[in-house]
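Please produce the structure of this protein holding iron/sulfur cluster.
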Amino acid sequence: MNLNWKGIPRDEIPWNPTIEESKCTGCKKCFEFCKHHVYRFDEKAKKSRVARPLECVVGCSSCKGLCEAEAISFPPLSMLADLLKSRGIDPARPA
Ligand code: SF4
Ligand code: SF4
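Below is the modeled complex.
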C-alpha cells in the first residue's frame, strides 16, 4: 500500500468505492478485477464488499465502469483537487 499520496497520508484521503448494497447483483466483476484487493466477496450474502478501502489507488475508478448494475460510486475528482489546494500542494507533484 502507498502510505501517502502527493505527500498526504493515505488515511487522510477519503478515496474509495462505495457499493449500494441493494443494487449489487453479486456478479463479482469488481472483486475479480481489482488487483489491489479492495473488495472481498461475501459468499453468504452474495454481494461484494469494500474490505480494504485504503488499498484503492487514489484517483482510480476503473471498476465503476464494469458494474452493470451501477452499484459502485466514487467521490468526485474535484474532492482531490480541493484537498490538494487546501494543503498548498502542487497538483503536478508526483504521486
Ligand atoms: S460489479 Fe457491481 S453488481 Fe457486480 S459484484 Fe461488484 S458491485 Fe456488485
Ligand atoms: S478504483 Fe481501481 S484500485 Fe480502487 S477498487 Fe476500483 S479497480 Fe481497485
